């Protein structure tokens, strides 16, 4: 067997797997939605895709180092001029450097078309939240059933009886995540079953999620007000906002967290 060939083939397979998992992570819903709805594609959830992506990244790096070792002479020849003298900043290296810098600067500064591509990914991620029933509050699946029912104003004993009638095993000290896992359903499904016969009662500010990602217009939709009205209210707090501004960034500009600002606005 040829270790050189094994190295090249390992690089190829690693790149294919990293590309696939990278695409899945790019289009996957935010973590809170993925965990709440038990989101999966081809039997893998967001967490599993992230784990596979990370381990294959390590394999790809190791294979790349070996690839450089086995192909050092050809790589070195790329950096030689016509006189066969090694010159690090050849025309080809300059072009490669500029391309790399362009992608880095364009992405970090939100320059089109990089920003358009990132926004496209954000739109896909947010579309999952519209598809699935939202959690009543962030990370609800991590709370015990006892704590969860208290927050949404459900009766604990009634909730346990409802779940039992659906052949779902649960106790007050089990988290929604554990109940879902033990019964092969999602935390979203548990909530859906409980809310069929009980009315959810929770503060609007507590029910908001994804505040770090959303634009002012999206926050306005969640609050049930017009964007112009929210912008006017924010102005009273000293925040000059536009409909497509990121809400979190605006809040941080006055040294406050998004939830604090929403509560100050009276929601």
Question: Which features would summarize this protein structure in a list?
Answer:
mainly alpha, 15 helices, single chain, 2 strands, 267 residues, 63% helix, flat, two-stranded antiparallel ribbon
Explain this structure to me?
It contains 15 helices and 2 strands. By secondary structure, it is mostly helical. It has a two-stranded antiparallel sheet. Helix 1 (3-27) packs antiparallel against helix 3 (46-70), helix 9 (176-182) packs across helix 10 and helix 12 packs across helix 13 (227-236). The chain is flat.
List the helices and strands and how they pair.
Layout: H1 3-27, H2 31-37, E1 40-41, E2 44-45, H3 46-70, H4 72-77, H5 91-108, H6 114-131, H7 145-152, H8 156-165, H9 176-182, H10 187-195, H11 204-207, H12 216-223, H13 227-236, H14 247-252, H15 258-264
Antiparallel strand pairs: 1-2
Brief summary:
With 267 residues, the protein is an all-alpha fold. The chain contains 15 helices and two strands.
Overall 3D form: flat
Average pLDDT confidence is 87
How many domains? 3
* Order of secondary-structure elements: HHEEHHHHHHHHHHHHH
- Rg for CA atoms: 25 Å
Summarize the biggest pleated sheet: 2 strands, antiparallel
C-alpha end-to-end distance: 68 Å
Query: Treating each run of at least 4 consecutive H or I residues as one helix, how many helices?
Result: 15
Low-confidence stretches: none
Strand content: under 5%
Structural class: mainly alpha
Give me the side-by-side strand order of the main sheet: 1-2
- The percentage helix is 55-70%
Can you count the beta strands?
A: 2
């Amino acid at each position: 067997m040829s270790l050189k060939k094994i190295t090249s083939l390992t690089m190829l397979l690693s790149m294919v797997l990293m590309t696939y998992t990278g695409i899945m992570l790019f289009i996957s819903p935010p973590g809170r939605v993925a965990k709440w709805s038990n989101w999966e594609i081809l039997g893998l959830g967001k967490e599993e895709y992230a784990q596979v992506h990370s381990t294959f990244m390590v394999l790809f790096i190791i294979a790349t180092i070996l690839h450089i070792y086995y192909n050092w002479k050809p790589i070195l020849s790329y950096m030689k001029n016509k006189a066969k003298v090694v010159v690090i900043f050849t025309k080809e290296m300059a072009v490669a450097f500029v391309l790399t810098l362009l992608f880095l600067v364009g992405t970090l500064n939100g320059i089109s078309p990089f920003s358009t591509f990132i926004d496209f990914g954000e739109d896909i991620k947010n579309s999952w939240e519209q598809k699935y029933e939202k959690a009543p509050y962030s990370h609800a699946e991590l709370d015990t059933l006892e704590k969860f029912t208290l927050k949404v104003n459900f009766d604990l004993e009634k909730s346990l009886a409802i779940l039992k009638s659906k052949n779902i095993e649960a106790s007050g000290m089990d988290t929604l995540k554990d109940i879902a896992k033990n019964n092969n359903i999602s935390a979203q499904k548990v909530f859906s079953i409980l809310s069929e016969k009980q009315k959810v009662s929770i503060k609007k500010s507590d029910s908001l999620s994804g505040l770090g990602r959303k634009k002012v217009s999206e926050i306005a939709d969640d609050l049930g007000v017009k964007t112009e009205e929210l912008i006017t209210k924010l102005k009273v707090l000293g925040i000059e906002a536009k409909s497509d501004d990121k809400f979190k960034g605006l809040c941080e500009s006055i040294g406050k967290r998004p939830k604090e600002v929403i509560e100050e606005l009276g929601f």
